[in-house]
Amino acid sequence: MSDRKEVVESIVLGVAHGRASALPNKKFSFAELLGVLRSVLEDGRIDQGDKPVLTKAMQSAFDKYVRDYDIPFIPNVIEPWVDDALYAAIPAIVGAALNSILPQAVEAPKGFPPMGS
Fold this sequence. Notes:
Layout: H1 3-21, H2 30-42, H3 51-66, H4 79-101
């Protein structure tokens, strides 16, 4: 396991554990998992290159803290399908969050002179 992977997993699971430890059943909703993602990204130690590792760490947090959470108003018979759909959405959500929260290098359009010339 690479050092960077360990660091990212440690950050994600540490934030998730901190939130879960305050709850009686140690489980939380998918919305709370999105809060974990936001906290992790705003922390400043994650960058665009961490997307694959961050995605895996968020999926691990989902399995540990969200999957067994009883979603209100969703019948137990279909809840596993909802859980699977939410789990499958994590890569897209991580990508969108990285793009919206973290700064990115913006390249000037071709044909435009450099600023200040």
